[in-house]
Amino acid sequence: MDDSNWVDEGDELRNEPQPTPPKMPTSPLNPKSAKIRQTLAMVETAFLASAGSLIWLINYYFPLGPLLRIFFPIPIALLYLRWGSRSAWMGALVSGLLLTVLMGPTRSIVFLIPYGVMGVQLGAFWRRGVPWEFSMITGALLGTFGFFFRFWLFSILLGEDLWQYIINQMTGLAEWIFLRLGILAQPSAVFIQLLAVVLIFVNSLIYLFAVHLVALLVLDKLGNPIPRPPKWVQVILDYE
């Protein structure tokens, strides 16, 4: 057998393409970037929770009317828009803890219910693109519940029935309405209580509308836009 054939066959084997080893699967998420995101989420949660507590604290000692109240739920809602539900709930709880240290547990509970929960609710609805009408009505229900919760809590702490004070005010309003309508009858207790609940709900609805307007202007500038308002609001504000 000729030795040159062995040499030629060896050369052919060396020239053939060798199979490449399989690549190890790489993780789609860089561990370093994930750690950076977690750090940013923690920092922003602490910052926005402190901002929410500070707004409540300033409004309590230096009340500026309804101006600062509009911003109560917005920091928590912004947390939900940027980092999701876990950061929003953590921000609400941290705000409550800070207010517990600064003002006592009563004021912190009054902040959490309804404004802390409302911030989470608004953030969840805005992130999912829920229309304004539904988010406003749901937020108004939370605000109405928070109103009655505050009255119940303060009635226990003060030892007085504060709801009876509201009923007395509503009685005068109901009598004035009956007089204007020409109804010669005494308003019943059921009508008076129903009137009080309706007015509280309407007040909460107006408050939620103002919160949506402020969030529309502020969060758009921060790069976290909320769903677009209804057409009639865009026409009034000339907003696109």
Automatic annotation (TrEMBL):
Keywords: Membrane, Transmembrane, Transmembrane helix
Name the record gives this protein: DUF2232 domain-containing protein
Transmembrane residue ranges: 39-58, 64-81, 88-114, 134-153, 165-185, 191-219
Compositionally biased spans, kind Acidic residues: 1-11
UniProt xrefs under InterPro entries: DUF2232
Pfam families: DUF2232
Species this chain originates from: Crocosphaera subtropica (strain ATCC 51142 / BH68) (Cyanothece sp. (strain ATCC 51142))
Organism lineage: Bacteria, Bacillati, Cyanobacteriota, Cyanophyceae, Oscillatoriophycideae
Residue span of region Disordered: 1-31
